[in-house]
């Protein structure tokens, strides 16, 4: 033990002091401009108790390879008193301007997350996933999904529902593809087909005045040959709607009709 002085406020110690057992004090401070160093050979525990010393109300345990903190709440503040981190049994508050998760496995939440913005750095992928439950996003005014340099993918093993309670649902893009619609025919036979991405009907031939029967026959034959060649190279379909709202395809040369195997 170093020099020991008894003062009005307590004890003043100079140098290094070692305690073999437990020390109980109301306040431990260092002189102004000097560091306060507390060191334990195996571990160091700082605890605050009210009644029973065996069950402290709050404690800080510094082990060889771990740090444990216990209490009704944990608060971390800046030197000017601003809250950086606060955790209780009911909630947790992060007061920093930005919270960054650098782990390769991301963050796992048992409950919900409330934040004004959620994004990934640079070109890294942002993925929201629930292994066994569900993922929901709610906001009082607006929920926005934006990919500035890539795609947005929504994958579901069952139904995917888009519902607007007061407004409408708008697809604002010149290219909309429905690639897995079923195709109905006159005999109600249903075969899955791929909708062509770009189709264009050929302009109908101009009607010409004919003077003889021979010329009319020749013109009709030529038109039929051209139409057969065009229909064999490009498949054009029309989109039909069942009474229940389901979409399906029909050939462009026939009218939409009820497809029993699709609509029921």
Layout of secondary structure:
Blueprint: E1 3-6, E2 11-14, E3 44-48, E4 58-62, E5 67-70, E6 73-77, E7 83-88, E8 92-94, E9 182-184, E10 190-192, H1 213-233, E11 237-241, E12 247-251, H2 260-263
Antiparallel strand pairs: 1-2, 3-4, 4-5, 6-7, 7-8, 9-10, 11-12
Walk me through the structure.
- The protein is mainly beta.
- The chain has a domain at 171-195 and 229-264.
- It has two helices and twelve strands.
- It has helices at residues 213-233, 260-263; strands at residues 3-6, 11-14, 44-48, 58-62, 67-70, 73-77, 83-88, 92-94, 182-184, 190-192, 237-241, 247-251.
- The strands form five sheets. It has a three-stranded antiparallel sheet, with no helix packed on it.
- Mean pLDDT is 74; it is low at 189-231.
Principal-axes geometry comes out as: rod-shaped
Unreliable stretches (pLDDT < 50, length at least 5) are: 189-231
Structural class: mainly beta
Q: Give the N-terminus to C-terminus distance in angstroms.
A: 91 Å
Q: Round the Cα radius of gyration to an integer and report it.
A: 38 Å
Helix and strand run: EEEEEEEEEEHEEH
* Count of DSSP strands: 12
Please give the order of strands in the largest beta sheet. Answer: 3-4-5
- Assembly of the depicted chains: single chain
Q: What is the arithmetic mean of pLDDT?
A: 74
How much of the residues is beta strand, in percent?
15-25%
Largest sheet features: 3 strands, antiparallel
Percent in helix: under 10%
Count up the helices.
2
């Amino acid at each position: 033990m170093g020099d020991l002085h008894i003062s009005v406020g307590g004890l003043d110690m100079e140098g290094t002091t070692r305690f073999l057992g437990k020390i109980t004090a109301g306040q431990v401070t260092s002189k102004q401009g000097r560091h306060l160093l507390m060191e334990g050979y195996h571990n160091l525990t700082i605890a605050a108790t009210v009644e029973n010393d065996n069950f402290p109300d709050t404690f800080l345990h510094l082990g060889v390879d771990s740090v444990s903190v216990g209490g009704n709440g944990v608060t971390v503040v800046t030197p000017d008193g601003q809250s950086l981190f606060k955790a209780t049994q009911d909630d947790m508050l992060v007061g920093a301007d930005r919270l960054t998760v650098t782990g390769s496995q991301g963050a796992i939440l048992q409950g919900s997350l409330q934040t004004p913005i959620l994004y990934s750095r640079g070109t890294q992928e942002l993925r929201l996933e629930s292994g066994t439950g569900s993922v929901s996003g709610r906001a009082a005014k607006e929920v926005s999904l934006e990919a500035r340099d890539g795609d947005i993918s929504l994958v579901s093993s069952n139904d995917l529902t888009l519902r607007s309670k007061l407004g409408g649902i708008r697809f604002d893009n010149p290219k909309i593809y429905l690639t897995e619609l079923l195709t109905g025919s006159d005999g109600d036979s249903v075969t899955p087909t791929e909708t062509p991405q770009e189709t264009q009907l050929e302009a109908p031939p101009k009607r010409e005045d004919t003077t003889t029967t021979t010329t009319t026959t020749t013109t009709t034959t030529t038109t039929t040959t051209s139409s057969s060649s065009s229909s064999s190279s490009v498949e054009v379909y029309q989109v039909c709607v069942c009474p229940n709202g389901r979409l399906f395809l029909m050939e462009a040369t026939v009218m939409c009709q009820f497809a029993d195997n699709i609509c029921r």
